[in-house]
Write a sequence for this structure.
């Protein structure tokens, strides 16, 4: 009987040590995962410092420099997102000026590009990028350009969603009916203005059939618009988005044909 009790005690001790060891491994794995997650770059910790030089070495335009940091430390590595490391959207306060450019990465979290602003005044800057250890993010800022100001243009809603640009006719349709807070599709239909024939030879632009940017009238809302996957080369280009609230919005559709990018603007009223 005593031998059985001793044997039982030994087996119990071995099992206890085994369970403790297993528990320790699980705890270690959880700790490793926690450390890995803590190394991820999150949007709230990322800041962009904007610097403008009105007298760049080239003698023209304005030098725009972005310093991107995470917890006050430069972010060194970025992933290619839609074929570029960083997309910079520049829009004037009255929404009359729009530019979509791709600054050059200089290292140490710094991007640079020259831009010729049409006039002085306030401009909305949006930088879209993806740190290698983080998710895609957008950082916005109002900047002021020191030049002679121009008279602000009125943001007028288009009565007809049909525009002609560089010999191309573009019609915008929305499905279902425009309504705030609802997922909608924006369909651009492109035809040759001279022959009225459908344009079916669009070229990929930034890895998709096109690119669409949307701002609210006050420049405070910047909407993410996603192209529907597996589209052809025209004449239709379909995108998905949601307008967060009622109001006036300006839409810029960008497409590429024969190696040239053209931009089509529309202004809509969302009920």
């Amino acid at each position: 009987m005593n031998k059985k009790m001793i044997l039982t005690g030994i087996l119990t001790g071995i099992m206890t040590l085994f369970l403790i060891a297993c528990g320790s491994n699980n705890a270690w794995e959880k700790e490793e995962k926690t450390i890995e997650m803590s190394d991820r770059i999150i949007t709230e910790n990322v800041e962009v410092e904007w610097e403008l030089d009105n007298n760049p070495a080239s003698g023209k335009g304005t030098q725009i420099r972005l310093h991107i940091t995470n917890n006050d430390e430069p972010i060194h590595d970025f992933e290619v997102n839609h074929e570029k490391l960083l997309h910079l959207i520049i829009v004037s306060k009255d929404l009359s000026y729009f530019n979509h450019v791709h600054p050059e990465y200089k290292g140490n979290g710094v991007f640079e590009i020259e831009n010729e602003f049409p006039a002085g005044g306030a401009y909305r800057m949006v930088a879209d990028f993806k740190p290698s250890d983080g998710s895609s993010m957008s950082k916005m800022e109002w900047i002021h350009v020191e030049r002679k100001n121009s008279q602000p243009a009125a943001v007028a809603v288009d009565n007809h969603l049909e525009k002609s640009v560089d010999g191309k006719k573009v019609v915008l349709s929305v499905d279902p009916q425009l309504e705030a807070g609802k997922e909608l599709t924006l369909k651009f239909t492109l035809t040759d203005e001279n022959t009225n024939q459908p344009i079916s030879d669009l070229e990929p632009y930034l890895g998709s059939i096109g690119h669409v940017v949307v701002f609210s009238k006050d420049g405070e809302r910047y909407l993410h618009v996603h192209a529907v996957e597996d589209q052809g080369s025209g004449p239709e280009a379909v995108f998905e988005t949601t307008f967060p609230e009622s109001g006036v919005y300006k839409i810029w559709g960008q497409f590429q044909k024969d190696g040239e990018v053209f931009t089509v603007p529309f202004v809509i009223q969302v009920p």
